[in-house]
């Protein structure tokens, strides 16, 4: 904008310079200046007139704006007042509606009371009510007469009951006394028997027999000693030969025993090495004698203790669980088994089941990859639904979807959430089936996992009496071809131990799932194919051969070595016994018999026999007395027993009669109670009927009052409706008034906007007029200055007359050229020359408008100067 102002100033200066030089160049026509001054004056007057007109227009526009604003203010106030009136009228209408609703409610209540009163009056005055009152009154009188009779009957039977109770108390007392007498007699008999037993006749008789045998033995030894002393040399030689022969035989037997023992140890080591391989360690399930398919089927129909005992003996036969070190070393998380671990446990479990099937001549079950997937999905479903046999849940038919299932369950100690030192926690591999209920079981290795499923299979085969052996028969079902097993684990119980904390127990269920199912009816199975979506591809069958180890040859060799060892041990034991006997005989014959010692022992033994005979004679004499006393005591006991039995008969009879009397009293009491209940019921009904009549009378007396309240309520409704109608009418009028004032306000605002726009236009015109006036004044000052310079130049005009016209023209051209390079110090128009605009709403770039207007004015002035110059040039 500053650059534009400079261009305007330069243009004005050029125009002024041209005009001056034209005057100087035309020395003969100085009067040409006068028209220029006249035109300038006219222009100045026109500019002033424009300013005055613009000022009048601006004042008129401002006045119109004030008037429009005043109208807007008045319209706004009127609209606000109208809206306030609408709000107030709306509240009045709302209150009137509430009053009308309340009046209608009160009218309805009053009308209902009238209807109720009329119903009560009708019911109370009906013939039915009167008839019922009469009937109930008669019925009550009859019942009260019967009440007297049965009450007397009750009193009679109660009196008889009292007599029978006294008789029974007496009989019971006599029975108690007879029982006491019998007990005393029995005690006396027992005491005498104890004394008789303490007399020790039998023991003394035995001692006598032993003492006689001892005397005979010593006498025989003494006789042999006397003879042995004669045949000693010959006996020693024969005994020595026996010892030597026995020693040789014993040495040979010992050598044979050592050899067979070594071979047996090698066979045992070979079998153990084979069984301890990672491939598998299978327990060979032993089937108890009598555990047959026929027995199972019969027990499933008629469960009996005999077969249950046979079946449970299988638990003890197979209580030892074998495991490999490799399984001990493999850690498992039984709640998150890998697919490989699940396949391995399936191979192990199905191989155990197939052992039993092979025993009964059945085909092996097959493990299939798709079947395993189905089984795991079912097990996961139990886990998601938090179902377990341990919680009392049964087989989930929805999850099984036409498949058969066996479930083996156990409680497993959660070692992750709890670690209580006081707990006796054992690894599953170290706990037998019988110990499961008395220990906390933990599972952390593959050996533990296999031990747990091993015990589950034992339970399903041998401890299944409670299920009528249904699980065992499912495993031994000839219709089944496939099976798979998968675990489900849920939170079980929590055992609290003060001072230690909680022990969390998980419930582990093994789900053995068979595609299809069978039913057992009338002694035979019926097979159903089950879920039609179970399409098990034989190509996905899993090879079970790796799950077992062929130990047949090793076991046969072990049995052979065991038999050889047993035979060698028998021979060795026999040889050692023969040698010991020979050595003993040699030692015996080698000794010199001590005849004097034997004679002394014989005399002592005979004295002991004599003492026993004396004791026995005394005991027999005491026993006679005790037997006589015992005989008398037994007689007294028998008499006491007879008396006790008689008193028992009397007591039983008295008790029976008392029970009969009690029954009669109870029956009579029941009749009394029932009659009393009837009296109470009839009395209640009669009271209710009389109350109904009273209520009818009261309702009849109150009916007129209630009807008056209905009429008053209707009047209130009518009045409330009128009030509401009037309020709604006034509200509608107020809304119309508010709408009209809103329209007036919109119109006033529109007119105000138009007035403001016109005011802005007038202001713009006024500012333009002022700027034009300023420019015009600048131009006038320049022209005045030029005029004065021309006058000064006239004084020198005589001196220049001698020049030719060509020279004048040349000088004029020179002056024009110099004028074209004239600097802006002659005329300077800047931003300060533009008057500030009156403050109004901004509608454009005011500075730019002023500058453009100034540029136009300067351009006009410059054109005027050039016109004058051209005219002078043309005249010359």
TrEMBL record:
Coiled-coil blocks: 551-769
Keyword list, A-Z: Cell wall, Coiled coil, Membrane, Peptidoglycan-anchor, Secreted, Signal, Transmembrane, Transmembrane helix
Positions of the UniProt region annotated as Disordered: 69-90, 163-184, 786-806
Transmembrane parts of this sequence: 851-869
Domain Gram-positive cocci surface proteins LPxTG, first and last residues per copy: 840-876
InterPro entries: LPXTG_anchor, Surf_Exclu_SEC10/PgrA
Keyword Zinc: no
Signal peptide positions on this chain: 1-22
Keyword set includes Mitochondrion: no
Protein name: Gram-positive cocci surface proteins LPxTG domain-containing protein
Species of provenance: Ligilactobacillus salivarius
Phylogenetic placement of the source organism: Bacteria, Bacillati, Bacillota, Bacilli, Lactobacillales
């Amino acid at each position: 904008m500053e650059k534009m102002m400079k261009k305007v100033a330069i243009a004005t200066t050029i125009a002024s310079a041209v005009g001056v030089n034209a005057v100087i160049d035309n020395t003969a026509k100085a009067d040409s200046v006068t028209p220029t001054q006249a035109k300038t004056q006219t222009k100045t007057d026109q500019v002033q007139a424009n300013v005055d007109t613009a000022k009048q227009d601006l004042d008129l526009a401002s006045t119109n704006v004030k008037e429009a604003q005043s109208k807007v203010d008045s319209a706004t106030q009127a609209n606000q007042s109208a809206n306030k009136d609408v709000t107030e009228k709306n509240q009045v209408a709302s209150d009137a509606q509430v009053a009308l609703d309340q009046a209608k409610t009160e009218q309805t209540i009053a009308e209902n009371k009238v209807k109720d009163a009329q119903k009560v009056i009708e019911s109370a005055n009906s013939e039915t009510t009167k008839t019922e009152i009469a009937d109930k009154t008669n019925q009550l009188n009859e019942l009260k007469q019967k009440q007297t009779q049965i009450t007397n009957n009750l009193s009679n039977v109660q009196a008889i009951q009292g007599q029978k109770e006294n008789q029974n108390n007496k009989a019971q007392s006599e029975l108690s006394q007879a029982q006491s007498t019998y007990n005393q007699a029995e005690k006396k008999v027992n005491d005498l028997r104890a004394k008789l037993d303490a007399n020790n006749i039998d023991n003394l008789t035995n001692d006598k027999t032993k003492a006689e045998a001892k005397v005979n033995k010593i006498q025989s030894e003494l006789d042999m000693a006397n003879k042995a002393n004669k045949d000693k040399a010959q006996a020693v030689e024969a005994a020595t030969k026996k010892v030597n022969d026995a020693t040789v035989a014993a040495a040979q037997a010992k050598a044979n025993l050592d050899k067979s023992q070594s071979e047996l140890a090698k066979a045992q080591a070979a079998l153990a090495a084979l069984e301890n391989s990672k491939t598998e360690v299978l327990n060979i399930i032993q089937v108890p004698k009598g555990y047959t398919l026929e027995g199972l089927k019969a027990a499933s129909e008629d469960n009996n203790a005999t077969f249950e005992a046979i079946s449970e003996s299988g638990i003890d036969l197979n209580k030892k669980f074998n495991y490999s070190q490799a399984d001990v070393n493999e850690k498992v998380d039984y709640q998150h088994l890998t697919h490989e671990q699940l396949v391995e446990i399936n191979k192990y479990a199905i191989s155990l089941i197939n052992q039993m099937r092979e025993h009964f001549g059945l085909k092996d079950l097959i493990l299939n990859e798709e079947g395993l997937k189905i089984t795991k999905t079912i097990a996961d479903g139990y886990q998601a639904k938090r179902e377990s046999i341990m919680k009392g849940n049964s087989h989930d038919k929805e999850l099984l979807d036409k498949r058969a299932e066996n479930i083996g369950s156990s409680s497993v100690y959660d070692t992750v959430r709890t670690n209580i030192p006081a707990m006796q926690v054992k690894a599953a591999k170290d706990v037998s089936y019988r110990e499961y209920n008395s220990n906390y079981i933990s599972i952390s290795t593959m050996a533990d996992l296999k031990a747990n499923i091993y015990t589950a299979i034992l339970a399903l085969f041998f401890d299944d009496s409670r299920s009528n052996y249904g699980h065992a028969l499912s495993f031994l079902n000839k219709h089944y071809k496939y099976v798979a097993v998968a675990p489900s684990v849920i939170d079980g119980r929590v055992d609290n131990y003060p001072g230690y904390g909680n022990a969390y127990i998980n419930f582990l269920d093994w789900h053995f799932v068979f595609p299809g199912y069978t039913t057992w009816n009338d002694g035979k199975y019926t097979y159903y194919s089950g879920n039609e979506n179970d399409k098990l591809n034989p190509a996905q069958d899993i090879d079970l051969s790796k799950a077992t180890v062929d130990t047949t040859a090793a076991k046969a060799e072990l049995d052979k070595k065991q038999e050889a060892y047993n035979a060698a041990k028998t021979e060795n034991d026999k040889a050692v016994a023969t040698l010991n006997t020979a050595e003993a005989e040699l030692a015996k014959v080698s000794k010199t018999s001590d005849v004097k010692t034997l004679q002394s022992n014989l005399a002592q033994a005979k004295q002991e026999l004599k003492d026993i005979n004396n004791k026995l004679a005394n005991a027999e004499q005491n026993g006679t007395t005790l037997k006589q006393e015992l005989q008398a005591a037994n007689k007294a006991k028998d008499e006491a027993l007879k008396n006790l039995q008689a008193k028992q008969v009397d007591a039983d009879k008295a008790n029976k009669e008392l029970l009969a009397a009690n029954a009669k009293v109870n029956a009579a009491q029941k009749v009394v109670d029932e009659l009393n209940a009837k009296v109470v019921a009839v009395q209640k009904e009669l009271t209710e009927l009389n109350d109904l009549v009273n209520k009818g009378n009261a309702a009849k007396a109150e009916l007129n009052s209630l009807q008056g309240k209905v009429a008053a309520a209707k009047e209130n409704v009518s009045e409330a409706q009128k009030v509401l109608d009037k309020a709604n009418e006034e509200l509608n009028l107020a809304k119309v008034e508010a709408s009209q004032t809103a329209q007036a306000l919109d119109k006033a605002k529109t007119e105000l906007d138009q007035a403001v726009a016109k005011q802005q236009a007038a202001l713009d015109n006024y500012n333009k007029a002022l700027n034009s006036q300023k420019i015009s004044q600048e131009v006038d000052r320049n022209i005045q200055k030029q005029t004065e310079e021309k006058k000064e130049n006239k004084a020198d005009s005589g001196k220049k007359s001698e020049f030719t016209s060509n020279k004048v023209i040349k000088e004029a051209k020179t002056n024009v050229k110099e004028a074209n390079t004239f600097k802006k110090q002659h005329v300077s128009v800047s931003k300060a020359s533009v008057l500030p605009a009156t403050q109004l709403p901004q509608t454009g770039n005011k500075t730019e408008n002023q500058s453009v207007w100034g540029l136009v004015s300067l351009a006009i002035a410059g054109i005027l100067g050039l016109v004058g110059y051209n005219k002078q040039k043309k005249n010359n």
